[in-house]
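Today's session is about reading a structure prediction critically. Students often jump straight to the picture, but the first step is always the sequence itself: look for stretches that repeat, for charged clusters, for runs of hydrophobic residues. Only then move on to the predicted structure, which in these notes is written as discrete structure tokens rather than atom positions. Here is the chain we will use throughout the hour.
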Amino acid sequence: MTQSFEDAATGFYAALGAVLAGDAGPMCELWSHEDDVSYMSPFGELLHGWEPIRASWQAQADARLGGEVRGEELHLVEGDLLGFAVGFERGEVHVDGRPQSVDIRATSLFRREGGRWRMVGHHTDPLG
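Below is the predicted structure for this chain, in token form.
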């Protein structure tokens, strides 16, 4: 079954929910494992290559922040081999047991690999 681009782009937020709950597996499944991937997290890190990105998502899962982050006002653009989603990530996580609001601009880049859309880039920066 061929995966739709919309399912991949919105599926990122389900995978992010799993990370917040302590499971990096769905996020690792979503990403391409190639060396040309990149991730600029809301923590200020700029990572290149699958292994550092995998380690970052695993560390975030290990933190078990809880809460929920949603994609809002997503604008999706799909090409034959590449697609991107831009919008906002909003919600709440728990840092040191206290709720913390999430209000982030985000751009996600995807590439079709073997009939599936895989994330190849994610760039976030906090608003405010």
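Discussion point for the tutorial: Helices lie at 5-20, 25-30, 50-63.
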